[in-house]
UniProtKB/TrEMBL annotation:
Record protein name field: Beta-carotene 15,15'-monooxygenase
TM stretches of this protein: 12-28, 40-60, 72-91, 97-121, 155-173, 193-214, 219-238
Lineage: superkingdom: Bacteria
Organism: Sporosarcina highlanderae
Keyword vocabulary terms for this entry: Membrane, Transmembrane, Transmembrane helix
Length: 353
């Protein structure tokens, strides 16, 4: 029923979009539709359709990705470029500058985004210094400081996420896993790290074999595949380090939990509505909408030790720094009894002022 409603809503916008494109194509080509000698008004109408109406309909079709001025301008540029091919050259001649002007605007936006990357590089030493000064974990502190000091622009978010990946892959080998009464590991009683190491070996062997064979067929394709495989290996290495060096941490007023580069969040104790423990947690549907799992991958199916329900949606950070709102978290730790005792105590304590 939900799927049918979703498709009907998409059809509500897909139909008019198709009509806009088809009508603007055939208005210049069907003999039954005479175009006046001075077709300036018709061409302007087509440009407005392709630069404003069509982009708005596309945004409505892809509303799950969010409405933004940047996306609208991108679709507008695409529409104006398409106009050059839809409108015959004779009619389009007085407006041939329009697509180039649109590309110029898009180019300015790209330059502005590149400028943000340089701004990140400028603030990077100060951000690293602040992380070392307060001795906070890079996994949570670095993206937060980047948003505060630079920008929350999606490009900067992705660059920050990739920077974390390379940091953990190359610069954390001398660090030892932290220990403490308020720290709880999620992986030591599982085969998560062994599974990742196995994947690294498999990718390395596959890279050598396929690259050698593909190099004779297509040098470019073999190089592209080699780069992708090297990046994948670095990602798994960074993932191992993230899991080792970032156990679940219970702070004074919130809990930090992560499992790999692509899954982390902070849970303030005041946002916890209820917690399911034991059998209630084990039988909970892990495919429920709005649920995020912090359960280390194992060769056998692992059950959560608790399901934490929130009294309001919280943001969880996923791969490449993208965020989504969740209503509950399923967590499995290596010391469930101690974890339960400490978490229940944290919830019962008055919040610090």
């Amino acid at each position: 029923m939900v799927l049918t409603r979703s498709r009907s809503k998409q059809g509500l916008f897909a139909g008019p979009l198709l009509v806009v494109l088809v009508s603007n194509y055939f208005v210049y080509r069907l003999p039954a539709i005479p175009v006046p000698e001075n077709a300036r008004a018709v061409v302007i109408g087509s440009l407005l359709d392709l630069a404003i109406v069509a982009p708005l309909l596309i945004l409505a079709l892809t509303k799950k990705k969010g409405f933004s001025l940047k996306r609208f301008i991108t679709f507008m540029v695409m529409g104006l470029i398409a106009a050059k091919f839809i409108i015959p050259a004779d009619y389009f001649e007085p407006f041939k500058f329009v697509p180039y002007a649109a590309i110029g605007v898009e180019g300015l936006i790209i330059l502005a985004e590149i400028g943000l990357v340089f701004l990140l590089v400028k603030h990077l030493p100060g951000i690293i210094k602040e992380i070392k000064k307060h001795q906070t974990g890079s996994l949570f502190a670095f993206p937060t400081l980047v948003k505060e000091k630079v920008s929350s622009h999606p490009l900067i978010t992705i660059v920050a996420a990739e920077s974390l990946m390379f940091y953990y892959a190359f610069a954390t080998w001398k660090r030892k896993p932290p220990v403490g009464e308020n720290l709880f590991t999620l992986h030591q009683k599982t085969s998560l790290l062994a599974f990742n190491i196995m994947l690294i070996h498999a990718i390395a062997i596959e890279t050598i074999g396929i690259h050698w064979w593909l190099h004779e067929k297509s040098i470019i394709l073999s190089i592209v595949l080699l780069i992708i495989n090297i990046y994948t290996i670095l990602y798994f290495i960074a993932d191992i380090q993230v899991v080792r060096l970032n156990p679940l941490k219970m702070n004074e007023n919130h809990m930090q939990v992560s499992l790999s580069l692509g899954k982390r969040m902070e849970i303030p104790y005041e946002t916890i509505q209820k917690i399911d423990w034991g059998p209630d947690a084990e039988h909970f549907n892990l495919k429920s909408k709005g649920l995020i799992e912090f359960i280390a991958r194992d060769f056998e199916e692992a059950k959560p030790h608790c399901i934490i329900h929130f009294n309001k949606p919280l943001k969880a950070t996923l791969i490449l720094g993208f965020e989504k709102e969740v209503n509950a978290a399923a967590i499995r730790v290596d010391e469930p009894e101690i974890f339960q005792h400490m978490l229940e105590n944290k919830r019962s304590l008055p919040l610090p002022k």
